[in-house]
Amino acid sequence: RPADVGEEVTLCGWVQYLRQDLFVIMRDFSGLAQILIPQDEVRLQVAVTFTISAIVNDSILISVEILNVCRKLPFEIKDFVKKSESLRMQYRYLDLRSSQMQYNLRLRSQLVMKMREYLCNVHGFVDVETPTLFKRTPGGAKEFVVPSREPGRFYSLPQSPQQFKQLLMVAGIDRYFQLARCYRDEGSKPDRQPEFTQVDIEMSFVDQAGIRGLIEGLVQYSWPVEKDPVSTPFPCITYEKAMKDYGVDKPDTRFAMKLMDISKTFHNTEIEFLKDALNQPGGCIQAICIPDGAVSTADGALKSPLNRLMPASAKQQLLQMAQARPGDLLLISAGTQECRPLLGKLRLQCAELLEGSGVAVRDPSAFHFLWVVDFPLFLPKEEDPDQLESAHHPFTAPLPEDAHLLYSLPHKVRGQHYDLVLNGCEIGGGSIRIHKASDQQHVLETILKEDPSLLSHLLEALDSGAPPHGGIALGLDRFLSIIVGAPSIRDVIAFPKSFRGHDLMSRAPDFVSEDELKSYHIAVNWPAGDEGNQEK
Amino acid sequence: RPADVGEEVTLCGWVQYLRQDLFVIMRDFSGLAQILIPQDEVRLQVAVTFTISAIVNDSILISVEILNVCRKLPFEIKDFVKKSESLRMQYRYLDLRSSQMQYNLRLRSQLVMKMREYLCNVHGFVDVETPTLFKRTPGGAKEFVVPSREPGRFYSLPQSPQQFKQLLMVAGIDRYFQLARCYRDEGSKPDRQPEFTQVDIEMSFVDQAGIRGLIEGLVQYSWPVEKDPVSTPFPCITYEKAMKDYGVDKPDTRFAMKLMDISKTFHNTEIEFLKDALNQPGGCIQAICIPDGAVSTADGALKSPLNRLMPASAKQQLLQMAQARPGDLLLISAGTQECRPLLGKLRLQCAELLEGSGVAVRDPSAFHFLWVVDFPLFLPKEEDPDQLESAHHPFTAPLPEDAHLLYSLPHKVRGQHYDLVLNGCEIGGGSIRIHKASDQQHVLETILKEDPSLLSHLLEALDSGAPPHGGIALGLDRFLSIIVGAPSIRDVIAFPKSFRGHDLMSRAPDFVSEDELKSYHIAVNWPAGDEGNQEK
Question: Which of these, A68, A100, A153, B177, has the minimum number of CB atoms within 10 Å of its CB?
């Protein structure tokens, strides 16, 4: 740098390449430096890549020290060299040298640091670490178990610090946050990781607006300076509106193509399957209009199997309602509950298809934040629709105006839950919690039919002067992957697991000897015929 | 506050107590507030403790809202009320309300924040999260195992991110840090926790002095403002000197009472057991002098069974060497290696005994930091003294001046390991690492007789242009417990486990049904006659 002129300095880094046997190009994350090698030092050509320390004086090379040599690498560290995902994972320590991965990991560190400054220094939050060796939560089917040295007793790796954050409110830590490691054993699911990180926040004496405002400030404060600034407050819509307009509870609001209810157009229809749909309770006919979605075949005429079954007036009405122009594509769905989610999915697929063929639908540099609120507190269980289960978790408080229904019509109760959505991905969720033990017991025991004794410590805690409280958890990995435009959360995690939950570099999980398992009083149940696979 | 005069404000907090049915004393972590209740509102006397929100105008109470009520608590939240450890743990959410625990947790958060600012903002370190579901490390007998859904395959919860931090150096993340959750399954050990937190640091192109300077700056920067400032650099002594002067590798330098070699005094002795001791290889006679340790019986005469066996000249010499005065206590130990550690332990016990009887030995407000360096790289294995094992871990580099001995006399090699000691407790340790694959392979395979294939990914990484690197890990829990003067690290952890590794609040670890274990292909081996204990 200019300030260093005349100074004797030592540069340490990696040799990126040799040029004409005369110049060494050295690399570290901050950039490149070119060093001229005097002619009597050309023996350097022996190495392809090695670590080097060069002592330079007034741009004159004094000495060169080769700090380490390098084998022939399985792939070159150049951005244009395409590597398979499994090769990248196997040699993650090389893959991380790419400029994109360096940027991702360094941005992650900076963004997290800004979040901490905002929470801890600006807003007085207390960073509290909570245990990861915990007790199995009721219904915690996705929790990894960890055998202890006591026969039959297991710890559990929790999916979130939910219980601890609420207990901290009872404990008078009125503003808690933690970058919490969480665990979820979901087998193989696309772009999920068995361990992930959430920005975990809880506050006492707060309402929904308080949490929303805090998070908007947090995002704004920690937002990368090189991106367009984020404006606040974020728009906020109800769950009902989201389902009505987008057919999904996490709408991508970077583009329109909203759902339209076109039932009216068909209320006298003779078309059998549409009539059937409308006659069902809750039946409706929905449509989305994809601008220029059929531009290749556009001649202004309506092209559809329905064409000949619809009277001209209905067609006119339909086109008017949909504001469809020649070349547009109208997609129609008829039915009950599944009707909107189906079109919601088609809406996203159409956007992708259009973008794939070069039509600009979504601005890739745009970041659309959105709050979704007023979710139902309970949903019918899939396997037994007469039973209710929590839409999110059993600790969410009802909306004050619905609270009286908790004891009479629980399925009508909306919860004080809020989701934060970014570009159509849920990046966070939280709620105002139930802070009265009697309400919590009613929800657990009477509505959800859970054994409340499993949560007796939490019920006792609520009964010990628990303040009103609420919080949120942001999925850090997902949030970052959207900011950097990464196709997978694996690109913002230093050492991620593969799709199947494997660490391809170290080959974890791995076999453990029977002897080592003895101290945990467990044995492996080998599936029939599989015992031969055992390596030890 | 003065600035709020004339404002309408809402106070939220807990009722600490009622005074004369007229005043409510409200509490939160920041202090107390007294609120006068108008005479027509005295119905408040019903509650002992409840959460309250009071709207006050110009110090006139406008309204009171009772936000929650409170059961009769198992103990009062008053600092002078003594609680048993198990009661504190069972109702941790109440215990944390004490002013001491509030102070400890809030100080922890602030100190950690300052550490992050220093590392991330001042020194450009990158905060990288590393996995906790990993592969079992060779000899990792203290690692918890986590069954996966693949039969016989287990993850392991690592004791430290050692491999990852080194891989990050190879990956070009030249300055890494992390507040890392670590796991160690040691069964029941006093004041250990199955999960704990370390400040984990690694740097490329660094030497011992570089790491030491960094850590001294880190401690200074993050040191609580209310304590006397820490002066740097910290004193530094060799392992050999520490053993010679204090009989321990983590000396408490807040007081003297150093060990003295008094072998000379006895080199012509007729006392049989002393003669035997001196005749052994490495035999010596050591002493410590406890000032005023025998003041109650002081008359200037030497009181000892050895008295009549020693010539007057030897006695004279002994007293002179020990600089003993009337009333002092001299403790003598004769033997070989065990001789110094034994006196080292007695030295600490004497300090405790003296302090117990009111003698000021150590200043309770003093913080003595100390570096201990030049440890042996290998030690003879306890079970087979012809074999060597790593004194710390197999990745520590030899001292440059001893490096040539690695291939000839490995037991003579000193390592580039450094321990940070505070008031006689090891609070951190680290080393400059081996960065050449051939040296690392030699250590693993030839010296330690380990199977190098278990670490093949690390060897390959070192062979891929690994830079010289080194680092350190500080035990955050221990460090904090010394700063706040807590008797146990449990007092600086929000939700610690008991001595036996139990969470007394939630009763973890707990039984898990056979069915739930099936997806992990494991079954419990019940010890004979123990199956009846199974709760499910």
Answer: A100
| Residues of chain B found within 8 Å of residue A174, distances taken between Cβ atoms | 28-29
Where does the pLDDT of residue A348 fall: very low under 50, low under 70, confident under 90, or very high at 90 and above?
very high
CB contact at 8 A, A434 and A402: no
Using the Cβ of B78 and the Cβ atoms of chain A, whether some distance falls under 8 Å is answered with: no
B29 to chain A: closest CA residue = A172
3-class DSSP string for B425-462: EEEEEEEEECCCHHHHHHHHHHHCCCCHHHHHHHHHHH
Rounded-to-integer distance, Cα B263 and Cα B341, Å: 16
Q: Tell me whether B71 touches chain A (CB under 8 Å).
A: yes
Q: Nearest-CA distance from A365 to chain B in Å?
A: 26
* Any A CB within 8 A of B526 CB: yes
Ordered DSSP codes for A21-56: TTEEEEEETTEEEEEEPPGGGGGGGG-SS-EEEEEE
For the domain spanning A99-241+367-492, the CATH number is 3.30.930.10
Contact B70 A463 (CB under 8 A): yes
Residue among B105, B104, B109, B83 nearest B95 (CA): B83
Rounded (5°) CA angle A449-A453-A155: 110
Verify whether the Cβ–Cβ distance A507 to B133 is below 8 Å.
no
User: CA B334, CA B521: separation in Å to the nearest integer?
Assistant: 57
The amino acid sitting at A412 is: K
Q: What is the CA A444 to chain-centroid distance, rounded?
A: 28
- 482-501 in chain B: CB under 8 A from chain A: 493-495, 497, 501
Which class is A255-356 in CATH? alpha beta
Please judge whether B533 and A14 are an interchain contact, meaning their C-beta atoms are less than 8 angstroms apart: no
Would you say residue B241 has pLDDT above 80?
Answer: yes
A–B interface: beta-carbon pairs under 8 A = 350
Listed in sequence order, the residues at least 6 apart from A82 whose beta carbon sits closer than 8 Å to its beta carbon are: none
CATH topology of domain B99-231+367-492: BirA Bifunctional Protein; domain 2 (3.30.930)
Q: Do B524 and A151 touch (CB under 8 A)?
A: yes
Burial of A388 (0-12, 13-18, 19+ CB in 10 A): buried
- Cα-Cα-Cα-Cα dihedral of B85, B88, B90, B92, to 10°? -140
Angle at A149 (CA atoms; ends A143, A153), nearest 5 degrees: 45
Maximum CA extent, chain B: 94
- On chain A, the residues whose CB falls within 8 A of the CB of B510 are 135-136, 153-154
Task: Give the whole-angstrom CA distance, residue A155 versus residue A135.
Answer: 5
Residue ranges per domain, chain A? 2-72, 99-241+367-492, 255-356
Output the pLDDT for position A42.
42
Tokens at A59, concatenated: 């741009």
Task: Find out if CATH 2.60.40.1120 is the number for domain A2-72.
Answer: no
Please judge whether A146 and B152 are an interchain contact, meaning their C-beta atoms are less than 8 angstroms apart. no
Is-contact B366 B380, C-beta < 8 A?
Answer: no
CB contact under 8 A, A70 and B97: no
Instruction: Name the DSSP class of B111.
Output: H
Q: Among positive and negative, which fits the CA dihedral B242, B244, B249, B253?
A: negative
Shortest Cα distance from A103 to chain B (angstroms)?
A: 11
**For residues B171 and A94, is the Cβ–Cβ distance under 8 A?**
yes
> What is the per-residue pLDDT across B65-117, written as a single tens digit (0 to 9) for each?
888 888 998 988 777 888 898 999 999 999 999 999 999 999 999 999 999 99
pLDDT tens digits along B170-179: 999 999 999 9
Residues A171, A175, A179: CA angle, nearest 5 degrees: 105
Q: Cβ contact (<8 Å) for A524 and B152? A: yes
Give the nearest partner residue to B457 out of A49, A50, A505, using CB atoms: A505
Sequence-distant (6+) residues with CB within 8 A of B121 are: A113
